[in-house]
Protein: PI3K/PI4K catalytic domain-containing protein
Amino acid sequence: QYYTRFKSYCCEAYNILRKSSNLILNLFHLMAGSNIPDIASDPEKGILK
Structure:
């Protein structure tokens, strides 16, 4: 019962984030040039697509 509810919440959260994925990725792209340590661009930490 608890696992089924957890799985349902995970799927719901995934679908909500997926609907806004373009906005979220654009915001991170804009923040990449900032001086925020965990968001700033670092080629060694980047993921190749």
In short: Residues 1-41 form one domain. The radius of gyration is 15 Å.
